[in-house]
Amino acid sequence: MATFSQPTIEKGSDMVLDFLCSTCEEKKLKESADYYCESCVKFFCQKCIDMHSQLFTQHSPHGSGDMKKWPVAKKVEDCLLKCDVHKEENNDMFCKDHSQLCCHKCAILNHRYFF
Questions:
Q1: What pLDDT, in 10s, does the model give residues 27-74?
Q2: In this protein, which residues make up the domain named B box-type (predicted)?
Q3: How far apart are CA 17 and CA 7, in angstroms?
Q4: What span, in angstroms and rounded, lies between the C-alpha atoms of 12 and 84?
């Protein structure tokens, strides 16, 4: 699964998590990824993508401008699925009244209707 470096803050104070280059990470280096190759299921920095593109001419890596085609990292997925109150529980219900995802414990304690 993808590995992150520290979060960075971009314009508008949105937090962006940087993916690490898979090749550099294998060498114990922490280099931010600029590309993702769906065929290899790996991330590459600018330096490593050049070699990758020479070796795998049929692959079409996605640059950072096309991140919607990059996978959601496990840490992000876990963050979205886990209940903020009951950390051990997954959000598995939706409260229409509050337009909010919640776990079954929160649904019983804080929400009348959950569907």
A1: 999 999 999 999 999 999 999 999 999 999 999 999 988 888 888 766
A2: 20-60, 78-115
A3: 5
A4: 24
